[in-house]
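Example 3.2
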Amino acid sequence: MKLYEHEAKQIFEKFGLTIPKQIAVIETTEELEVLTLNFPIMIKAMVLIGGRGKAGGIKKADNSDEAKQIVSEMLDLTIHGYPIDKLLLEEAIDIASEIYLSVTTDPATFDVVIVTSASGGIDIEEIARTKPEEIWKTSILDNSKVLPDSIAQEAVDFLIKKNPDLIALDNQLKTTICSLFSLFQQVEAKVCEINPLILTKDNKIIAADAKLVLDDNSLYRQAPMLKSISIDPNSKRHDVAEQTQFEALAYKIGFPYLDLLSEPVNFVKEKDKLYVGLVPGGAGYGIFSIDEVVNIGNRYFDSNVIPINFMDSGGGPSLSKVADMFHILMDHPAADLIITSRFGGISSCDIFIQGLIMSLRDRFMKNKRMIPVFGRMVGTDLAAARAFFERAKRETPEPLKDLHIIIGNQKIMADVIKDGIEYGFKVKKELKQGGGN
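Structure, written as tokens:
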């Protein structure tokens, strides 16, 4: 569950983090008339996706007329396809400098990770890509509930080294980092992020933004906290803005899909890691595939393999739905490799291989991005599937040159996954040497 900024800030404040003065959450321009406003103020679009600032969803108003114009324009705005229904009004802060700070979970190891940078207020993904030396990152391996003082001080020392003006705020910074870590652990969050964490001109540290994503599995334990910010813990919120682009597309097509990477469109890959998309044959096999990719990655590839999604084809998917499942992952900017498996019971191996090949031929004809596919198929209609696959390789070898499907049980799925990952790293290395991504 993602929280809106004003909801997250209420929780931040409970944990001792300083936030800007909150004025109101409004839905119409007329509501401005009944508010007592001390300008300047910030006007922010309440959407559960990133990139608001670049899309015009965060603006400063210096007077009443300007506020009315901004509110009117913003309520007519859509951000990445999502309409804006509510706006947060809060005090504007005099900014001396900006910091990035987050606590999150590594999707591969499930270790808690702390990330900070003295270059806040802008896309941290871009900083990670162009200036990795500007980012400090560490993993907390023992899942302690309280951040060790030595780690907090290490983060503070890094920030002061990058921005000596922060030296006078040593203790405030340490307290803020420890408070965010405690918040993350106590509310059982998946992501706690402040960007920017502002150093004001009068030497205060204020969380100007707040991102908080809770683990759905822990919501019943967090009932008192959720009730305190007027969220009913017994009814999970289904806000369309919580969906990623790929989740929304899969929902429209008609099959379950979850991204394991937050904000996948803006995700910046680590160069030494291989990101694996999964097209399994069912929900249980989908969960197994995630676990097996992680296990094999840890055992043979120095923990450098990251599964990027969960997917469930459901019973007896149509040919076009199978094709769409592969299209989604081929279009996913993080995917380096697709691992697939069809254990045909209700589902037909013949329909599966026809849908997969249809997607590859279509992408080849339209010159769309294609990545290697490794997998295995066993079960219903296997003979017809084998015949179609062999004929397709003869008739259109070029679109299928990176399709590697084991037919039958001569190799266990764990070995298919291992072979696929080895091949994926090989292709990634060749692309790097050739100047590709």
